[in-house]
Amino acid sequence: MVPIFAQLEIFLRTCFVKLFHPGKRTTVGSARIGEMAGVAQLRFAVEGGGEVSALLWRPVQARRLLVLAHGAGAGMSHPFMEKLAGELAGVGVATFRYQFPYMEERRRIPDAPAVLTATVVAAVRASAEAAPGLPLLAGGKSMGGRMTSHAAAQRPLDGVRGLVFFGFPLHPPNRPGTKRADHLAKVSVPMLFMAGTRDTFADLKLLRPICAKLGSRATLHIFEKADHSFHVLKSSGRSDAEVLRELAETASSWAEAIDEKQSKLAQNPTGAEPAQTRSRN
Questions:
Q1: With contact defined as beta carbons under 8 Å apart, do 46 and 118 qualify?
Q2: Hey, which bits of the chain come out as E strands?
Q3: What distance in Å separates the CA atoms of residue 75 and residue 97, rounded to the nearest whole number?
Q4: Residues 26/33, Cβ–Cβ less than 8 Å
């Protein structure tokens, strides 16, 4: 159970800023406040994995919450995760970042798949308790996104409306294959795949047909000249910061679109539609 004190902390910080620093951004500890609420440090229990840490960043204008898992080699406080959470906050998406047990215990080898998926399920539950009332999304960077999809394939994640993959690791680096995507057919909610053209973990010649086969459940957004970490070459004419911003904006606009689409489908059900593909030049 997530302590109610964490919710109270965010509420009080938000009220303080609105009263004494309207429209201003400042820093309290490690948390940026002003237009945004503070970042709350939480802990939650994982079946078979003990307790793990989490960070809830809920901007004042939050419209939804993304349960965001880290990749295999770096935890929830990695600069990429920090910057991504900041960009998401800027477009009204709160984030619930969390550690897998092996990262919490500073072990190098990831936990067994059963523990990883149990962590995803527990994180979704804990996020809903920490930020009640916000529509939920779930996903993550690389392995974190893949484990989220495995958890969702086993059984629907409570309250989660869609999955967001910041670099889906379709296969090991430079070893093309599609076995890691076999379970995606069992995921019942919409999925957003964001991938770079230089991603050695996801050959687009393989990822594109997978998304097409998933039909209207899958949206593929391509980043030209970006690698698995969404680092872009100078020749792209873009900066990594601009790519991070686009990642956040894409996730936000996609989430709004699926809400609208699901509302329309509820009123007038239709057959499967082709997967959507977007490309950034």
A1: yes
A2: 26-28, 31-33, 36-46, 50-59, 64-69, 93-98, 136-141, 160-166, 191-196, 218-223, 276-280
A3: 9
A4: yes
The tens digit of pLDDT for each residue in 73-92 reads 999 999 999 999 999 999 99
What's the number of domains the chain is made of? 1
- pLDDT tops 50 at residue 203: yes
129 lies in which domain range? 38-280
The CATH number linked to 165 is 3.40.50.1820
CA distance 80 to 247: 12
Total number of residues shown for the chain? 281
| pTM to 2 decimal places | 0.82
DSSP-derived secondary structure for 171-233? SSTT----GGGGGGGG--S-EEEEEETT-TTS-HHHHHHHHHHHGGGEEEEEETTB-TT--B-
